[in-house]
Every structure is written in structure tokens, then in C-alpha cells.
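The protein record filed here.
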Amino acid sequence: MNVLVSDDKQQLGARAADLAASAIAAAIRERGGANIILATGASQFEMLAALVGAPNVDWPRVTMFHLDEYIGLPATHPASFRKYLRERFVENVGPLVAVHFVEGDRPDPQEECRRLGQLIAAVRIDVAMVGLGENGHLAFNDPPADFQTEEPYLVVNLDEACRRQQLGEG
């Protein structure tokens, strides 16, 4: 596992993208394809901008899994994480093997979690590009998160601190 720390967002994003691109390219060389998880948030802007320009990644051999989404929000809403990833990543790397978005506007959020859980449980994840929220959350699993669960996707209720952070990030 690689952990990067810097106060220079541009430098940190470029370095994270370089590490991710190298790991993705290695997975493609070794197994013919790669599975990645992408998160959203202000912490991902510079990394995604650098990653889409990575010259050594054969994107048509990559499958992307989306990490989280608001319940009830359509993919066209300005705050949608699907919209964020579509605009900042998917549309910029060309065709992928598959893109598995969290469809937060499906009628049954629990069923959506099961659908995605089955998909992600069937593959090996090669690279997960995620950031930590101000309160330590990862994919809205706010502290104290449930570390005993084995479910890859859950419906969670956002605490007040997380809601304020989301509002503050726009």
C-alpha cells in the first residue's frame, strides 16, 4: 500500500496518478486487464486530471467501479458523483471494459448495494484511488464506521459533520 503526504495538491495528485497508472499497467501486463475503484471529492481533482493523461495505460482493458453516491440523486444532478466521474474520468479516457456506477436513484438502494456487491466480489481490485474526508470518512463510512461488515456497499446515514463538509465542498 502506498500513502502519499504533501501540501502541494498538484504534486501530490500527479504522484498518486503515476503510482496508480503504474499499478494499472502492471495488472494489464500480468492478467490482461485491471479493475479499479474511483472515489470523488475535492481531494481527487488533481489526481484524476493527471491520471487521464497517463500514457502507459491501455484504458480499453480497464473496468471501473464507483465508490459512493447520494440516494435519490439523478446522474444529471450537479452534485451527482456519477456526473463528477463521467466528466472528469470516463469521458476523457475513452472506452473502458465496463463502468459500474452506484445508481443512487434506483428505487431500492439495498438492492443496488447487492447488485454492486456481487459485481465487485467477483473480481480482484488492482487499484483503489480514494481520499479521506475531513472527519476521517472513506466513502461516507463516517467514524465510527462498521469495520465488522463484509458487505462491499452499504446504505449509510451521514452525520452532521459529514453533511457540513459535503455542503462546504459544493
